[in-house]
Recover the amino acids of this structure.
């Protein structure tokens, strides 16, 4: 019976023992798992914060603890956790087992009598013990350190990420990147910023608030910077460096500071702490207040002539624009009465009759009555418009003045045909160059007004300009000696002709011009008489032995004034005035053509070209001066150089020519440096290169008045200068933009003297021998 | 069937030893089986048979066995530009070699598992089995690779290989590119080439636009071309430095098809030394000296002021040089000048000694430019200067003479006054022509030098009228043609058709006397390194070096007589520098393709193949393995079951 019960107890005991073994092994595994988690978390944290993670890394990390645990199960230490070990443990823990609990799992056959008896005695005790909950008596496998480390690492990762996220999420503050090369005052960071721009009151512009440190503003604007810093500092230590000027901040609260300044010029600035920069370089792009712009809508001509018997009225309509407003507009006039030495001038100021807004433009209107001004036929009125804007400076009015071009109004004494007609005033000598210029101005105005005027008006005005151009062209043709006939002038375009005979000439003309020629027949007779009454006497052309056909060209294009015209169209490298005038007239032809076709935009380039040739002719010899055909005989060597040389002090002179253009050389040097800059390598700048940078900065500073947008490049140069290396950070496209600007700043290339290179040196002995051989062969061939 | 030791070829003794061991083992196992299976003859026979088969299989696996075949076994070499269609035609049993860096583009293709990646084509000859036929796919090998192959592989081996080439389909691209790599400021960059037609999507009617862009991306000039047509784009160089211009090809829809870089180094040349001898001051020489002197040109101007007196003006000479030029018109002094400019009267006034000195100097390389005037034209030909006989001047009896001069890349459109004469040279070298085709400036070579006759005495008018670019370009063009070639230490200009790529070597040469250069360093921003020079036997003044760039970008070579890097790096060292550019392999792909195809086709055209009557291929050892496994299985089963 004892054996049966013990058998029954034994199986139960063994199952209970197995459960205990399982518990202990589980605890061991959990401890191993805890420590393996430490490794996993540390590895994960390292990759997460530095190199980043991918899916495979996650897989590896997941397998690591499993691997560690599996490895533990293979160790002998783990295998030793068995029934026997548990019973040994119970022996030590419970004295009532009498150090014999391990006998239970030993078979009776292998026990001696004493052991069997002992086994029988303690079996029930052991069974009773095992029946209790012994989990608290079993060995523990603590892992508090591992858990602590794991938790700590996780919290640290979370903290690092959280702080970084917070600093990038918080707006409007941002980490204002320092320019490279600037030692940061590590504790000072700009947490937030608000910049207020108050334009001058007279501009009527609203106040603007922004967080962008790069500002665009009107000159005279008051700018206020409000900064919140990361730490509390003395207000006197914080400053704003604008150009050379240092502006101090005032403290508002613990970490809030304010500074303000009136900005009038374009420049760069940055924020300083104890004279050290704590911010990037920012730009101030200042737009200047431009003076008013005056444009005459009516009258368009510079000179207005009112016939004697016509109503002495005319109208002035002017468009005046200003960016911010006008303060005063007036007309300054001067009336000239009398003629010759008894002419009297009377100045008077006038105001416009009315002002209205047309298409958002200020238009001023005045109707003139010459009689009311006390003028009489023969008098002249000169007037111009003066406009003042509403600019203020230093709290005082400082209006900018613009004066328009002068207009001349002539109240004619005698009945004369208007200049706008097809006729010619023989004693009227218009100011040619000004007239051509006036045609250009009026053409430009017509193009500008095209949108605002009706199509009919546009076409009529264009044709009127074409007529004016035609008149001018014909007048110049007269001075060139051409008889006033359209055919001759047309023939310049049609091509050379052999005779002045009109009949033959007319045959040579193209058909449309032939019609024009026929229409002008009536005028030819009258104008021939007029030409005869002129001062210049025409003489017959001297015949010349012309072998090259050049005289035919002269016949067509030139008109000899009785003396031999050597036909030198080009003398001393400069085309003759006649040639230049011909070219001018040719351009006038084209301009007239397009103006008559109501294409002023196409006519404008020809008008400009015509004016250019007129100016060049003006600088050349006067075309109506009789040229001397006398050429002195050439000086023979016998008579050359027989002068007195006693005053020649020295027969030798040495000089060094070095045209230095430091700005240009600096631009080229910097451009070259930027071209070699790559993102792969950082290059430290030498002192010479930094000096070049300063020169380029000076160059851009000089250009600021005309191009305030160049301030961006000055800021880039400042950043490079501070960093003293290339490339620089916080500069996505700035280097490429700077490079493009520098390239454009270099003038058009002027070729340099160079020699070519051969693939051998001339002092090569083989070359020398061959050369001598060739020379000898040549000499031998000669008779 | 043929046999070879295969892996044991390197150590046949080992093969003998292992064979002996195998036979001993076979014998021992047969004896032991006999002892064990005395009473079971069938099993004994089975064991012996299986052992023998297993031994034979081991031997068969260890050695190479080739069997004769009618099909020529072909190995395949895959080069850059291979298409997927070509890859799909490959057979499984072919030996496939993949030349780097083609493997990078085929990384996901199954060919990578079947083929062997090689760095160099020579490696295909390192395999145990001799190559009998080679089929090249893709663009083929470059000229350099073929040279390398011919150098390392004995010709008899190459002749035994039947090489075929299947070029890839030609793509649209810029080929036959030619441009000068080193220019001076104001010189015109001229890029010529051809637009290669795409063989697949070829549409002959399509008109493309090819544009030349400056380093900041502005379009300088464009040309419309069709596929297959040549192009020529030019533009002047703006400033010194190293610049990357670009060629961009767009289709009619303005879609960018190609964008290739063109690297140009714009530098300065050694200042010229010019002697001007004139019978009277002139605007022409005055403006010329003003222009030339500002670039460091050394000018000596001798102007006659009396019958026997000249007034001399030296510009940019130092005191020592001036002291040597007290008598400039002798042989020794003339050696130091690169060009002498004379007006007509000055030529007529030359003494006999001066004429002789001038003649000798021209033969040794001096350049002469004679500004023709009416007196010279009337006196021509000059009996006392017979070396001018090959030039002729014919005065013209006309009232005046003007013409629009034209020279390469000129842009003058207005006529200027020309001397009333006609000039010509026996060699018909015309430097400047008029608008009616007449010669305005001609050149005649004499010995190593040149003589030029110019009818243009009023080029200064361009300068005074603001056309400084045209004026300077005119004189630059003349100086290049007439002045003595540069004699100082200089780097040889790169071949206009050569483009250097990364991972490909090239040679750069220097010209100079033997002791004028001892040291060359390759400069990159981090660490200068010395490059050894080699001399050419037949050209002792030519020193060359070989570069192996492994990355793209600019490089700079400095040559000096200074012996080490630190001295060269100092600012006072006198160095002769040159810049070059190494293009990335992603650039000019069509050009590289066409060059490789051309080189391969050329090599194959001249390839002498000696056909073999027998072809062998490796025995497929799969069944040997099967037999081995079967035999060993039988032995194992027998041992276990019984």
């Amino acid at each position: 019976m004892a054996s049966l019960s013990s058998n029954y107890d034994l199986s139960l005991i063994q199952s209970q023992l197995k459960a205990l073994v399982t518990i202990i092994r589980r605890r061991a595994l959990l401890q191993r798992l805890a420590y393996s988690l430490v490794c996993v978390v540390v590895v994960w944290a390292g990759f997460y914060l530095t190199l980043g993670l991918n899916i495979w890394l996650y897989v590896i990390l997941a397998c690591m603890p499993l691997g560690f645990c599996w490895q533990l199960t293979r160790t002998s230490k783990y295998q030793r956790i068995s029934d026997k070990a548990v019973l040994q443990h119970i022996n030590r823990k419970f004295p009532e087992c009498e150090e014999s609990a391990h006998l239970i799992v030993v078979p009776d056959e292998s026990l001696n009598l004493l052991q069997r008896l002992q086994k029988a005695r303690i079996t029930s005790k052991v069974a009773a013990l095992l029946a209790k909950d012994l989990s608290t008596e079993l060995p523990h496998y603590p892992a508090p350190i591992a858990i602590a480390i794991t938790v700590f690492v996780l919290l640290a990762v979370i903290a690092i990420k959280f702080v970084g996220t917070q600093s990038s999420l918080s707006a409007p503050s941002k980490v204002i990147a320092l320019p490279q090369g600037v030692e940061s005052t590590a504790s000072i960071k700009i947490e937030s910023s608000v910049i207020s721009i108050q334009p001058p009151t007279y501009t009527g512009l609203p106040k603007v608030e922004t967080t962008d440190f790069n500002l665009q503003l009107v000159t005279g604007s008051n700018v206020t910077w409000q900064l919140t810093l990361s730490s509390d500092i003395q207000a006197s230590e914080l400053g704003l460096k604008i150009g050379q000027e240092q502006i101090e901040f005032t403290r508002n609260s613990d970490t809030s500071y304010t500074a303000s300044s009136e900005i009038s010029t374009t420049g760069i600035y940055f924020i300083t702490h104890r004279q050290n920069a704590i911010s990037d370089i920012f730009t101030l792009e200042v737009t200047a207040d431009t003076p008013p712009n005056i444009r005459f809508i009516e009258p368009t001509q510079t000179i207005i002539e009112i016939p004697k018997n016509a109503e002495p009225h005319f109208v002035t309509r002017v468009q005046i624009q200003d960016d911010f407003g006008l303060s005063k507009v007036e007309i300054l006039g001067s009336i000239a009465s009398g003629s010759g030495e008894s002419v009297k001038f009377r100045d008077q100021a006038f105001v416009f009759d009315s002002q209205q807004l047309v298409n958002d433009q200020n238009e001023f209107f005045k109707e003139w009555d010459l009689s009311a001004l006390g003028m009489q036929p023969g008098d002249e009125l000169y007037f111009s418009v003066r406009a003042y804007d509403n600019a203020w400076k230093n709290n005082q009015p400082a209006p900018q003045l613009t004066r328009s071009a002068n207009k001349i109004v002539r109240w004619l004494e005698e009945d004369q045909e208007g200049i706008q007609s097809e006729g010619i005033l023989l004693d009227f000598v218009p100011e040619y160059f000004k007239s051509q210029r006036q045609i250009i101005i009026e053409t430009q105005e017509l193009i500008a007004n095209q949108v605002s005027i009706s199509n009919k008006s546009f076409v009529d005005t264009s044709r009127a300009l074409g007529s004016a151009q035609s008149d001018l062209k014909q007048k110049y043709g007269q001075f060139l000696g051409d008889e006033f006939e359209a055919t001759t002038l047309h023939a310049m375009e049609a091509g050379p002709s052999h005779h002045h005979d009109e009949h033959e000439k007319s045959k040579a003309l193209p058909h449309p011009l032939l019609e024009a020629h026929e229409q002008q027949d009536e005028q030819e007779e009258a104008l021939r008489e007029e030409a005869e009454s002129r001062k210049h006497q025409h003489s017959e052309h001297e015949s010349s032995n012309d072998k090259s056909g050049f005289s035919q060209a002269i016949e067509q294009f030139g008109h000899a004034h009785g003396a031999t015209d050597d036909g030198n169209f080009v003398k001393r490298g400069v085309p003759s005035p006649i040639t230049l005038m011909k070219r001018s007239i040719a351009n006038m032809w084209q301009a007239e053509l397009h103006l008559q076709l109501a294409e002023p935009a196409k006519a404008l380039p020809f008008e400009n070209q015509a004016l250019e040739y007129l100016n060049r002719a003006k600088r050349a010899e006067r075309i109506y001066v009789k040229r001397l055909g006398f050429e002195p005989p050439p000086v023979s060597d016998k008579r050359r150089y027989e002068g007195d040389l006693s005053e020649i002090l020295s027969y030798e002179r040495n000089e060094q020519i070095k045209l230095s253009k430091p700005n240009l050389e600096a631009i080229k040097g910097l451009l070259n440096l930027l071209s070699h800059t790559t993102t792969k390598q950082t290059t430290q700048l030498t002192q010479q290169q930094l000096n070049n940078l300063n020169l380029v900065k000076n160059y851009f500073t000089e250009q600021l008045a005309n191009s305030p947008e160049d301030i961006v490049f000055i800021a880039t140069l400042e950043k490079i200068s501070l960093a003293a290396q290339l490339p620089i950070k916080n500069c996505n496209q700035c280097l490429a933009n700077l490079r493009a600007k520098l390239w454009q700043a270099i003038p058009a290339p002027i070729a340099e003297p160079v020699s070519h290179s051969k693939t051998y040196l001339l002092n090569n002995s083989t070359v020398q021998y061959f050369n001598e051989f060739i020379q000898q062969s040549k000499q031998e061939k000669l008779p | 069937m043929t046999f070879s030791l295969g892996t044991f070829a390197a150590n046949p003794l080992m093969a003998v030893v292992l064979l002996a061991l195998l036979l001993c083992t076979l014998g021992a196992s047969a004896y032991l089986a006999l002892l064990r299976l005395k009473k079971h003859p069938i099993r004994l026979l089975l064991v012996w048979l299986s052992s023998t088969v297993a031994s034979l299989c081991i031997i068969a696996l260890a050695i190479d066995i080739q069997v004769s075949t009618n099909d020529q076994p072909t190995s395949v070499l895959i080069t850059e530009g291979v298409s997927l269609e070509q890859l799909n035609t490959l057979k499984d049993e072919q030996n496939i070699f993949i030349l780097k860096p083609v493997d990078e583009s085929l990384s996901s293709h199954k060919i990578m598992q079947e083929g062997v990646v090689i760095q160099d084509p020579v490696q295909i000859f390192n395999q145990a089995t001799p190559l009998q036929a080679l089929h090249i796919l893709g663009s083929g090998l470059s000229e350099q690779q073929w040279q390398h192959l011919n150098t390392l592989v004995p010709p008899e081996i190459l002749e035994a290989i039947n090489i075929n080439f299947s070029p890839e389909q030609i793509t649209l691209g810029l080929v036959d590119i030619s441009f000068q790599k080193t220019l001076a400021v104001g010189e015109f960059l001229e890029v010529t080439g051809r637009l290669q037609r795409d063989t697949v999507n070829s549409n002959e009617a399509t008109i493309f636009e090819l544009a030349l862009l400056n380093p900041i991306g502005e379009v300088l000039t464009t040309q419309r071309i069709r596929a297959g047509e040549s192009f020529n784009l030019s533009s002047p160089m703006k400033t010194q430095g190293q610049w990357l211009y670009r060629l961009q090809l767009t289709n009619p829809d303005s879609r960018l098809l190609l964008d290739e870089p063109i690297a140009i180094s714009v530098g300065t040349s050694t200042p010229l030394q010019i002697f001007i001898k004139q019978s009277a001051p002139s605007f022409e020489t005055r403006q010329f000296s003003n222009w030339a002197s500002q670039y460091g040109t050394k000018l000596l101007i001798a102007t006659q002021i009396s019958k026997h007196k000249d007034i001399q003006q030296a510009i940019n000479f130092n005191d020592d040089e001036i002291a040597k030029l007290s008598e400039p018109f002798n042989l020794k002094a003339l050696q130091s000048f690169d060009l002498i400019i004379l007006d007509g009267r000055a030529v007529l006034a030359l003494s006999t000694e001066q004429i002789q000195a001038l003649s000798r100097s021209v033969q040794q390389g001096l350049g002469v430019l004679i500004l023709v005037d009416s007196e010279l034209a009337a006196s021509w030909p000059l009996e006392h200067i017979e070396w001018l006989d090959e030039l002729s001047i014919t005065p013209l009896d006309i009232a005046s003479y003007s013409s629009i001069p034209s020279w390469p890349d000129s842009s003058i459109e207005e006529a200027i006054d020309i001397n009333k004469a006609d000039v010509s040279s026996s060699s018909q070298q015309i430097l400047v022509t008029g608008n009616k085709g007449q010669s305005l400036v001609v050149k005649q070579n004499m010995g190593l030098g040149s003589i030029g006759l110019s009818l243009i005495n009023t080029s200064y008018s361009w300068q005074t009228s603001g056309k400084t670019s045209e004026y300077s370009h005119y004189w630059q063009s003349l100086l290049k043609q007439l002045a003595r070639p540069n004699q100082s230490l200089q780097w040889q200009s790169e071949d206009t058709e050569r483009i250097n790529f990364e991972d490909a070597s090239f040679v750069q040469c220097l010209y100079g006397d033997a002791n004028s250069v001892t040291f060359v360093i390759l400069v990159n921003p981090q660490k200068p390194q010395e490059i050894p020079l080699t001399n050419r036997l037949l050209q002792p003044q030519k020193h060359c070096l070989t570069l192996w760039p492994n990355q793209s970008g600019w490089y700079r070579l400095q040559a000096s007589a200074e012996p080490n890097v630190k001295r060269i790096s100092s600012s006072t060292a006198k160095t002769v520098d040159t810049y070059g550019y190494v293009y990335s392999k992603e650039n000019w792909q069509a050009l590289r393709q066409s060059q490789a195809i051309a080189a391969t086709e050329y090599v194959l055209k001249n390839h002498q193949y000696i056909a073999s009557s027998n072809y062998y291929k490796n025995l497929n050892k799969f069944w040997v393995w099967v037999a081995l496994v079967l035999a060993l299985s039988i032995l194992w089963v027998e041992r276990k079951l019984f």
About this structure: The first strand of chain A starts at residue 190 and ends at 198. Chain A touches chain B through 66 residues (CB under 8 Å).
